[in-house]
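Supplementary Note 3. Input sequence used for the single-chain structure prediction.
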Amino acid sequence: MAITAALVKELRERTGAGMMECKKALVETNGDIEAAIENMRKSGQAKAAKKAGRTAAEGVIVIKTTPDNKQAAIVEVNCETDFVAKDDNFKSFADAVGERVLNSDADDVEALMALPLHEGEDTTIEEARQALVAKIGENMTVRRFARLSTDGVLACYSHGVRIGVVVDIDGDAELGRDIAMHVAASNPVCVDEADVPAEMLAKEREIVEAQARESGKPDNIIGKMIEGRMRKYLGEITLKGQPFVKDPDTTVGKLLESKGAKVNQFVRFEVGEGIEKKQEDFREEVMAQAQAARGE
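The predicted structure, written as discrete structure tokens, is reproduced below.
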């Protein structure tokens, strides 16, 4: 029987498993979706699928580099609790994923998950993830990754396992590490003003202008207020405009200039950023269960 995209889609919806796993299961059962589901339940994939909807906002940031510091990979691997984030099995899995990112050309998470976890082995990253979910009992995800290469130096800094930074710098490695540490602490949006997204800039200007007009001052004064506040805003969000964490009397831009150095780009990952954590209300949960028991 032909394994159609519609059949794969149906199996994904019914199990929550990845596309590659669904396709493989259907091939093994010659398109029999019920048999495929049964096999996936036996292998633990269905158990993993049941946990797929649970929020995984804890985890680790892993950074891997080549010996010459010309290539680097940074990856976020998530779990549900801080306790599991410290588990040796979870950390070993995340570390192996980092190595695979560094040594592959996968351009998105889906492609990455279809690769072998270890070179020369058959078990894919997705299969290893599902097996670990079944073993530990928490949902886990490989959320995102980035791969960098440079003709300069890639300097890295990890703040524990929750924040990781890679900086591409034309300069010495020690300065690069200081800049990476600064990025971890100050979380700039981009390197300099030219890199600020136009939409972000327009939105902030709109807010600043509305605030300035509330003052009731003449238009010429309002114009100066707007420009002054926008300069302050750009200094706060850009790497080169921020006061350097190790010497607040100078900006990062002035520090780089004094060293004859240049930051080309940086990547900063923080565990769980942007993930909305579900807020549990125990009282409401108990009340809802009591109402359900009474048939209300």
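The CA atoms of residues 36 and 42 lie 10 Å apart. The longest strand covers residues 71-79.
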